[in-house]
Amino acid sequence: MRGLNRMDGAAELEEFLCLWTKVQAVKQDILDNMNEDLIEWTLTTNNVYSAKSAYDIQFKTRIPSPALANVWKIKAEGKVKIFMWTLLQNRLWTADRLLRRNWDHHDSCCNCDQVIESAIHLILRCPYAKEVWHSFSSTNQLVARYAREASSIVGWWEKVFSHHRKKVEAFQICTTSVYIAWNIWNERNRRLFQHESLPVQRLCNIISDEICLLKEAWE
Questions:
Q1: Cα of 95 vs its chain's centroid, Å
Q2: Which stretches make up the Reverse transcriptase zinc-binding domain (predicted)?
Q3: Nearest 5°: phi and psi at 105?
């Protein structure tokens, strides 16, 4: 009401009182129709929260990725599937990712000590990794070729998985490829955390033994 003394006449005062009356009427109408506030969970039919509905909504907007879904179809141990699922999303804690977060990291690839470590370098481009892949060329040319020609992790995986539907090739190519990648990762961790290293041929023997045991278990 402080502004009333600035009004110059009865007309302005009358307009003010008219506006005031209308504002009060609207305010009262809002108060009369106002319901008590309720907390409702709109993601369920009964509007009651459930942990399942909260979990489901987190994946509602995700873009489906066939490459990721295909990981769970291969013949491999659970830990190897999880490794592949993480690798395909570039979520391995390689040096390049640690560096971006200013976390402690090794300055160069643990397997070759030449360049900073990234997922594609470690698994496919590192000289040590290339030797491992090449070692399988005499018994499995496609495994070695796909690794040699790959320009990305996902592209490599798509070629590897294309053989999944054929029973023999599923083991010879899909399973062999993922176990090679898995053991290259293990070698990196062995060097980084245990300060031990294996020569290429020794690692290849371990890979071959693991695949043979897995094949026997599946048969």
A1: 17
A2: 49-133
A3: -160, 160
Find the Cα–Cα–Cα–Cα dihedral 125, 129, 133, 135, rounded to 10°: 140
Query: What gap in Å lies between CA 121 and CA 117, rounded to an integer?
Result: 6
- Which pLDDT band, with edges at 50, 70 and 90, does 62 fall under? low
Number of structural domains, the chain? 1
Would 196 be classed as within a structural domain?
A: yes
For the whole model, what pTM was predicted? Answer: 0.73
| 33: in domain | no
Measure the CA–CA gap between 77 and 80, rounded to whole angstroms. 5
Contact 123, 188 (CB under 8 A): no
Q: What is the structure's pLDDT at 171?
A: 77
Residue 154 located in a structural domain:
yes
The residue assigned the tokens 């994946």 is 59
Count the Cβ atoms, other than its own, within 10 Å of residue 28: 10
Segments in the chain forming alpha helices (H): 10-33, 51-57, 66-71, 78-88, 95-100, 119-120, 127-135, 141-149, 153-161, 167-169, 176-189, 200-218
What pLDDT score was predicted for residue 193? 95
Work out the number of other CB atoms within 10 angstroms of the CB of residue 94. 24
Residue 8 is predicted with a pLDDT of 67
More confident residue, 101 or 217: 101
Sole residue written with tokens 């999303």: 89
Domain coverage including residue 93:
68-218
Task: Output the six-digit token pair for 91.
Answer: 């979520």
